[in-house]
Amino acid sequence: MDNGFFVTRENEALLTDLYELTMAAAYWANGINSTASFELYFRRLPPNRSYVLTAGLEQIIDYLLNFHFSENQIEWFRSVEQFDHLDQKFFDFLSGLRFTGELRAIPEGTTVFPLEPLLQITAPLIESQILETYLLNVLNSQSMMATKAARMVKAAAGSSVIDFGARRAQSPQAALYAARASYIGGCQGTSNVLAAFLADIPAYGTTAHSFTMAFESELKAFRAYHRVFPKRTVLLLDTYDTLEAARKAKLVGNDLAAVRIDSGDLLDLSRKVRKILDDDGLQNVQIMVSGDLNEFKIADLVSANAPIDSFGVGTELVTSYDAPALNGVYKLVEMTIGGKRISRIKTSQGKPSYPGRKQVYRYQKNHYHSHDVITLAEEAPSEDGMPMLQTYMEAGKRVVDLPSLTEIRKRAAFHLDALDPSFHDLNGAAEYPVVFSQGLKQELRKAERSIQK
Amino acid sequence: MDNGFFVTRENEALLTDLYELTMAAAYWANGINSTASFELYFRRLPPNRSYVLTAGLEQIIDYLLNFHFSENQIEWFRSVEQFDHLDQKFFDFLSGLRFTGELRAIPEGTTVFPLEPLLQITAPLIESQILETYLLNVLNSQSMMATKAARMVKAAAGSSVIDFGARRAQSPQAALYAARASYIGGCQGTSNVLAAFLADIPAYGTTAHSFTMAFESELKAFRAYHRVFPKRTVLLLDTYDTLEAARKAKLVGNDLAAVRIDSGDLLDLSRKVRKILDDDGLQNVQIMVSGDLNEFKIADLVSANAPIDSFGVGTELVTSYDAPALNGVYKLVEMTIGGKRISRIKTSQGKPSYPGRKQVYRYQKNHYHSHDVITLAEEAPSEDGMPMLQTYMEAGKRVVDLPSLTEIRKRAAFHLDALDPSFHDLNGAAEYPVVFSQGLKQELRKAERSIQK
């Protein structure tokens, strides 16, 4: 384990399922590598959700631009027992493999719905197939996290939400992904220093209980911190007794930024702490709460008018605790066979697929997005709809500038606000209308008839 | 984003919460950096679990050996607005910061229970504090995944379980972590090629539906694959019609390794497919199933005697779907103040901590582990118990060889088998007895009296 147990630019092409490589070998040996189109979509919304907010495209484009196998990786392939009988020419082929195709996708920070293609790859079959695992991983995970963040931010109703979840994320890189995705979803920032360093996300931090415990007394700890960060002191109140600690705030200084309550009955304590601070003339000192929060608890505190200015959220945010996976799939929709583009579908029980390269049009009515229509890519939309999939790469090269994270975050806010308020119900009862165009329906019937089982 | 959005050896020290750094600055400026001990433990078992299986220590040791901030990272710190007023000498201090302390831990592949210290760091306060986020992230995530895998493997009752989850993991590195942890938990291998490359975990792969769809007919696809992988062909049956596909198996060859069913009623289909294969003289062809499996569904299939040889599991395994976080915490337990070692605790509501550096002893009775006793580190155990925490690092250097992944996996199998069968009930009703020693109870009372709030 010379370079540790990390995914990096140097090895990310290997982050794939073995079957992508065995299929590549079988395609190659059978001389099959004509142009194919795959689309990535999810079939059902995760529990409690009425929408999914997309994120992760920037990392996907970085991966596609960098895709290659190194010489020592090819050497290793040759030693894997599944592959040790294969033709040397196949390994030469893998060695030269790059992404040379087209990427179309719905931009990051867009609300999306079941069956809508979030991403479409058109490239020689072996290339387009081998990308499957990584594309799914990145788009599934970041979109899931962005969606969870959006739910919490909506629940907070104007109070800020900050990602404190690095310690509970499902690997160090998952913490990075969560910080980025939750910023897109509307969080004000993150505690994650690496995310701040790599992606310029605003970083926030206070103190831990251990800081208070490291001093002879709580007041000494408070004062020691305030001396070093006079303008940014957030006193953590609940190491010993929350209300007693709140009464010490005025002894520390009247320029405190905030106090934080991390345990106990947050509604009751926030009210009592607010009163103590106000009585002591500390009306400008804000109250932050944290500790196993989720969107439902936040909504309860907000509806009870708890005097809370910001919510620090960890575990539930970064793991999307109530829905820890987005079941995106990546399906072949079109193949060129004998020079002809042919739509492909599968008919597995409960897991159908839909043929042809597609586009999605979004329509507006009375300030809100009213419905989407999924069409074939070349179909003209029947009305004045907004096309959702954009072309990001052609012939393996990026053809547009990517938006900044701030722009992505603004786009997300726009799309979230364009949903009728019922879509922000935390139980996910609303159903956004997504319909297939006539052209797509005809293509589906044609593809069904053409299956040669 | 020059090197992409990855955690690597070069930047992993930054994967920490900002408050670790603000506390470091406050400790430094106040001249506080005497020896401190922190312990990592979880307070409650995750839902449905009667134990947690540890994993991740190898990555933690790698991190501790490599811990440092690079010059351009220090440069960046200086530019962060929270830090821009701090003394240059503090940045010089950070620049020279390495882990110089002691690491004691329970080995990977051990069953553990609430309040048991899984890991103990003794080092100058600033060092030991700053590690918190990363240590928690790694041990929380991998242990959670290893535990989920162990549950599935037990449910499979001898049939093999393989990790197919890379596409649903919560980031690319989470897929790596899941492959490693699930191998420790007893899985037979993984589909994840990078995990096979980096950690020599056995890799498995079959084909996707798209492979079948890329050919003019299903039979042509089956034969094309078999030509290239004659000894390792696994036919995926459910692209169009599972039973029709099963009837084609004999036309492909009698040396098939297996067939895979990925949708539909797996009990009914596995029985019907088994009969078709047997009638066609293909008794040696195994049946693998996959598709949104979890330990409960596996147990149902096993108890119905479904003729299934292996289970490919994805989403539920890699995300630990029903319990996607382990709530490990990292708490100050001892400080040296004025040359004296002083135990520390906090008394937050519902989140107490326990004083002093500890050891855990495990006891055996009639082939099973009967109970554990948590003692102070220097206490002699009252009976013939097995000490659980081992010393891995002293003065910042590793002092023992690390076990191979195979050895860790064997250790896990030993500890899982040493649990009374009731602990493998999937609903997690059993409670393992963990008691505090007299010495630890006395220390707790002493620490409570000594708190100067």
Summarize the structure.
Two copies of one chain form a homodimer. Chain A is of the alpha/beta class and 453 residues long.
Layout: helices, strands, pairs:
The structure is a homodimer of 453-residue chains.
Chain A: H1 18-29, E1 35-42, E2 52-53, H2 57-66, H3 71-79, H4 88-95, E3 102-105, E4 111-112, E5 119-124, H5 125-130, H6 132-156, E6 160-163, H7 172-184, E7 189-190, H8 193-199, H9 209-213, H10 218-228, E8 234-236, H11 242-252, E9 258-261, H12 266-279, E10 286-290, H13 295-303, E11 310-313, H14 315-319, E12 328-337, E13 340-343, E14 358-365, E15 368-376, E16 386-387, E17 390-394, E18 397-398, H15 405-417, E19 434-436, H16 438-450
Parallel strand pairs in A: 6-7, 6-11, 8-9, 9-10, 10-11, 15-19
Antiparallel strand pairs in A: 1-5, 1-12, 2-4, 3-5, 3-17, 12-13, 14-15, 14-16, 17-18
Give a verbal description of the structure:
Two copies of one chain form a homodimer. Chain A has 453 residues and is α/β, with parallel strands linked by helices. Chain A has two domains: 12-130 and 326-450, nicotinate phosphoribosyltransferase, CATH 3.20.140; 149-319, TIM Barrel, CATH 3.20.20. Chain A is 38% helix and 19% strand. Chain A has 16 helices and 19 strands. In chain A, the strands form four sheets. The first copy, chain A, has a seven-stranded antiparallel beta sheet with strand order 13-12-1-5-3-17-18. In chain A, a hairpin with a 2-residue loop joins strand 17 (390-394) and strand 18 (397-398). In chain A, helix 2 (57-66) runs antiparallel to helix 6 and helix 6 (132-156) packs parallel to helix 13 (295-303). Chain A is globular. The first copy, chain A, starts with 17 loop residues before the first helix and ends with a helix. The mean pLDDT of chain A is 95. The interface between A and B is large, with 131 and 130 residues.
